[in-house]
Design brief:
homodimer; 340 residues; alpha/beta; Quinone Oxidoreductase, Chain A, domain 1; Rossmann fold; 2 domains; six-stranded parallel beta sheet; 9 helices; 25% helix; globular
């Protein structure tokens, strides 16, 4: 086998506030020969996700920081192009954590490192979206924390995104009213017309908690029973003002504070007054629910009942700009980078 | 039976900020004759509790506002002095919600309105404290929300009070480390020496989150796994900075915001980073656990294993001042008013 050059994007410096393209560097590394048990994967798509921003910082967080001068970590789907492992053969489609690089050389005998996937009814890229980590994230918060009863109202921020779109559609499957928050008229139209939410609020039209809270009151005439939080800040404050007794907040992301801005919760006494439950979670710590979640999500995607949208950047070199755009909400649906 | 004059304290105006004695008025009302099913109780002790402050406001809260120009609502213990109800006889000791008045005339056939209590091993007043609503409040938050494992660390604010003292002692019974927060050296000494907490921090010695957080770090070398919140504001912020992964906060009271001051939570992103669970609760909405809780609490009090302290004001007319003092932390232990 001729030597293959692996292109990868490394983190070379940490952002002090907003990250910039200079924090990243494209490098080429030679791939060593395949050892026993190893599999060589050609990555077809990289997943770009908001959680990666948190890992770029060095401070205390729920995950180890992304190491400097190493390939950016992240989920990938691809195809096996060489194998010294009996469980994988050339041509197998796989999902793994290949990172921001064209190739992944991996010891596939470690459990969970590489999963074969069936692309008969589900496109390969969907395993990075609704049938992957973002989908299970939405499933967990909706099913295990919010757990809506039929007729209740569920609100989700970043509603057109990879996670939010799943939350609202699952809420509808459970018989609840689904109300989204998204940035811009296009996204809101998509959330209602394509994803089937009952309503969607363009948060960019509201510059104060009062204004946003009034819009939520109109969209949620019976109040809010569950909220899936991807954003934080003013949106959380406005939602809490409309929260019903015994409402639940699944706290999944607080992207508004990723660059270090203070994002206080204005009125935590509402947690008491409304006997609310607020729970933060990270889906990788709940691997026990993944099979159940993926079974439901895969079935819904295969039968066309769970819709999703992708923003696809072309080529590895485009990954940093696509990631910075994601942090600013420039993507529309799941942000991917196509490598093949 | 000669006519009995019932003295009562009514709420005659609502506070705009801090309540004052002018919000209350002592009035005398004649008691009507006893009807079928009714019981006349001579109240021995009134219970004064922080939640009453919330009910003095007219705004949205978890409970109906205290009506104006009516007797202040509240828990009482006393003795039956006349009965037209087969289930109660003169001399029975009872706990009920008799309000701020010397006598309570009540239809005792309604379930739960009046409970006979046994004072053989448990003093009558304890049914307003560790074997009553405050005790069950502490029991619920500790057992059902914080649910500490042996070796974990539980922190409680207002630790010398009726609720906080139960929380810490129950945490010790469960094998956890108990750390209190209280105002002043006397209360802290009591919390450690009498109640048996492992440590207690005098929050009055700390004027900044940073300083209080450093004190918490010293008192909780393994971090904080559970926090029972009675206060809010700066104390909550400081605790959250020391919260461990998967820690739980039982939100029971936020007395620092009762007069309308803003009490923002500075860093709600810690809920996500530490995968915390925060839950507000009101013990009267969990009547199903009261029998289990009272069985444990009664057993611990009767055998001297659960210690408590009372601040007793003398006579009905002293109730308003005692209540205003309670809101400022002037009480030491459960605040009662003795009427007999």
């Amino acid at each position: 086998m001729t030597a293959i050059v692996n292109s990868q994007i490394q983190l070379v410096s940490r952002p002090t506030a907003e990250p910039t393209p200079d924090n990243f560097k494209l490098v080429e590394v030679a791939l060593p020969a395949l050892q026993d048990g190893q599999v060589l994967v050609r990555n077809h798509y990289l997943s770009l996700d908001p959680y990666m921003r948190g890992r770029m910082n060095d401070g205390k967080s729920y995950a180890q920081p992304q190491p400097l001068n190493e390939v950016m970590l992240g989920g990938t789907v691809g195809e096996v192009i060489a194998s010294n492992n009996a469980s994988f053969k050339v041509g197998d489609k796989v999902v793994g954590r290949g990172g921001w690089q064209t190739h992944q050389l991996v010891d596939a005998s470690q459990r969970g490192v590489l999963q074969k996937v069936d692309t008969t009814h589900i496109p390969l890229s969907a395993y990075l979206g609704p049938v992957g980590m973002p989908g299970v994230t939405g499933w967990y918060g909706l099913s295990k924390i919010i757990n809506p009863k039929a007729g209740e109202t569920v609100v989700v921020s970043a509603a057109s995104g990879a996670v939010g779109s799943v939350v609202g559609q699952l809420a509808k499957v459970r018989g609840a009213r689904a109300v989204g928050l998204a940035g811009g008229a296009d996204k809101c139209r998509y959330v209602i017309d394509e994803l089937g939410f009952d309503d969607c609020i363009d948060y960019k039209e509201h510059s104060s908690v009062k204004s946003l809270s009034a819009a939520l009151k109109a969209a949620c005439p019976n109040g809010i029973d569950g909220y899936f939080e991807n954003v934080g800040g003013m949106i959380l404050d406005a939602v809490m003002l409309r929260a019903n007794a015994f409402s639940r907040i699944a706290m999944c992301g607080m992207i508004s504070g990723y660059n270090g801005e203070p994002i206080p919760m204005s009125a935590p006494q509402l947690i008491l007054m409304n006997r609310m439950k607020i729970e933060g979670f990270i889906v990788s710590e709940h691997m026990d629910v993944w099979p159940e979640a993926l079974t439901e999500l895969g079935g819904l995607v295969a039968t066309g009942k769970l819709k999703y949208r992708e923003s696809v950047a072309q080529g590895l070199a485009a990954a940093p700009e696509a990631f910075l755009g994601l942090l600013k909400g420039k993507n529309f649906g799941k942000q991917l980078v196509k490598l093949v």
